[in-house]
Amino acid sequence: xxxxxxxxxxxxxxxxxxxxxxxxxxxxxxxxxxxxxxxxxxxxxxxxxxxxxxxxxxxxxxxxxxxxxxxxxxxxxxxxxxxxxxxxxxxxxxxxxxxxxxxxxxxxxxxxxxxxxxxxxxxxxxxxxxxxxxxxxxxxxxxxxxxxxxxxxxxxxxxxxxxxxxxxxxxxxxxxxxxxxxxxxxxxxxxxxxxxxxxxxxxxxxxxxxxxxxxxxxxxxxxxxxxxxxxxxxxxxxxxxxxxxxxxxxxxxxxxxxxxxxxxxxxxxxxxxxxxxxxxxxxxxxxxxxxxxxxxxxxxxxxxxxxxxxxxxxxxxxxxxxxxxxxxxxxxxxxxxxxxxxxxxxxxxxxxxxxxxxxxxxxxxxxxxxxxxxxxxxxxxxxxxxxxxxxxxxxxxxxxxxxxxxxxxxxxxxxxxxxxxxxx
Length: 424
Description:
Blueprint: H1 4-9, H2 11-19, H3 27-63, H4 69-101, E1 121-126, H5 139-146, E2 149-150, H6 151-158, E3 164-165, H7 167-186, E4 191-192, E5 198-199, H8 201-206, E6 225-226, H9 231-236, E7 242-244, E8 250-259, E9 278-288, H10 293-310, E10 315-319, E11 331-339, E12 344-353, H11 357-362, E13 365-367, E14 374-376, E15 378-386, H12 387-397, E16 405-406, E17 420-421
Parallel strand pairs: 4-8, 7-13
Antiparallel strand pairs: 1-10, 2-3, 5-6, 8-9, 9-15, 10-11, 11-12, 12-15, 13-14, 16-17
């Protein structure tokens, strides 16, 4: 959510910031409503002052035995007018809020301009795609040939974009999640949290998922929402809180299923498990002092990179262009892993700094060391990493000519001695 005071102070700057997102100027409409609301509030306060003075006058005259019928008629008129103004200002408040909550975050200055992902900029690459010495297969070809990945069974019970994993591949998926959680808690200082998979409107609204993205989420019959990512409940831990300065940063992580009713662009990745309605992900969330959020963003991205290095996967770091940056993010750094079966780099982690955009919606604040000043925190979120996509990357990058899959050494302790998944 945007601070309307910043729009008042620099409307042209705000419109320029929204133009980077491809939006038309909107400050004039917002400030017009704001001006009406402020005028209504000013008039309301003036009338309240008159009502109070009139009430005192009526009281004095009644005590003196004087007739106050005319004064009481005036008081009733003032009361009706103040009630009308109160309703009008509340309605204007709602209009302003609805406009603001639909507007994306301002972008950081170093975010490259561009309409879509083709304008994203590669910042660094770690490792080179391997020459496997044979025509690599995609993960679904490998998994089905092994008899351990079953899309037909999943479709029979749940429909499209679900997967059944069996045996060693189910074990590998579980191993990846446990490995990532251990890395982030033992080496990176994140605190593991077990969170609800269902959240209320306030939690989803505060993390900028509602109302804009309601059509991409699953909703229950009692009005709760299945989480699209653990970012929602992890960030909501700070909702309506005032955190002492010395407790920052909060660094928390969770391994959860994630649910999305809209599983990506129509017609893309229709085969396999790249885009699913249900998938596993390790999420990283940081709540920081505003002065430290940029450094925390770099740190968080580095934590996700460590997972990919330990899994010995080639990857690259990418800064997203303005047209590809998510609604709530001021800046996003993606990690893309190489998939030999597709001969393409695909996103496996997104780490975003939302600055105070989510905090304003959640009313998440901190108290400065002086014990008096209160300000909004900054929140960050990132994949640490997507478990299903890590499974795909491990399968494709470690496939052998005979269809078997070698297990990276970092996962051996989690695989009960299995170092290779072979065809039956």
